[in-house]
């Protein structure tokens, strides 16, 4: 499992298709802010996306957008149209029955897939940190794998069969990884705040992050990590601070705490075993570090997370 996989899994990122829109002329839909991320893909026709404090964006067939921080936004046929609020519950019921959300006037010429991504609220790691408020991948920029995934979602929605919900939710999780890959691999992407995701786009910090994630329980030193990466200690420290936003040792401690929290939420192993699994020989030292990071000792955290 690579770095992108581990962060998304540890934050328990889960995608779900929220609606399939079929629209004619003069339509508008207001989508409220959500606690995770929002996603849209236009499979036919066009739509105008408006996010507060940003210029409207015309989405063309094959375009996909991710709003990593779940900002409220409007999808519409164009400016100056009547806008109605999106009903999440009704849309989910329609997907389950194979129906679509029908909007506008006249024959339907536009189809839009809407999805959302939730993050475990007990996880402190932000899987979308460092991304712009809006990530837009046009049909011309989309790799073939992303286009294939979106086509599969459209096919499933067009002719839903048994297990359609499981298929859709699985594929939109794949779509998220493909969208993040596009951003990471684009040398001209906007530079956001320092974060693990920004670190993935830099060859030195990406290599260092990979080493830490492959063996988080190791007693790493900056010297040891720098030798593995093939740069000087000073270079590694400087690049890690500028791209990831904190020193390697601080990042490693926070990642160990996230891994420990995941094991406590999902497993039944004793706290001492969790401590050893993330590199702590002393359960007392682990308890102190965990409580400082998560605001509660491991036992109380486990009980609260399960409630």
SSE layout and pairing:
Elements lengths: L2 H8 L3 E12 L2 E4 L5 E8 L2 E5 L5 E3 L4 E4 L5 E4 L7 E2 L2 H9 L4 E3 L1 E14 L16 E3 L6 H15 L5 H22 L10 H5 L2 H12 L7 H8 L3 H11 L4 H19 L4 H7 L5 H12 L3 H9 L1
Parallel strand pairs: 1-9, 2-8
Antiparallel strand pairs: 1-10, 2-7, 3-6, 3-10, 4-5, 4-7, 6-11
Helix pairs in contact: 3-4, 6-7, 7-8, 9-11
Question: What can you tell me about this protein's structure?
Answer:
By secondary structure, the chain is an alpha+beta fold. It folds into 2 domains: 3-185, Jelly Rolls, CATH 2.60.120.10; 202-306, Homeodomain-like (Arc Repressor Mutant, subunit A), CATH 1.10.10. Helices cover 45% and strands 20% of the residues. Strand 4 and strand 5 (57-59) form a beta hairpin. Helix 7 crosses helix 8 and helix 9 (248-266) packs across helix 11 (283-294). It is globular and about 70 Å long. The two termini are 29 Å apart. The mean pLDDT is 89.
The percent range for strand residues is 15-25%
State the strand order across the main sheet: 9-1-10-3-6-11
CATH architecture of the largest domain: Sandwich
How many helices? The count is: 12
Which residues sit in consecutive blocks of at least 5 with pLDDT less than 50? Answer: none
CATH class of the largest domain, named: Mainly Beta
Quaternary = single chain
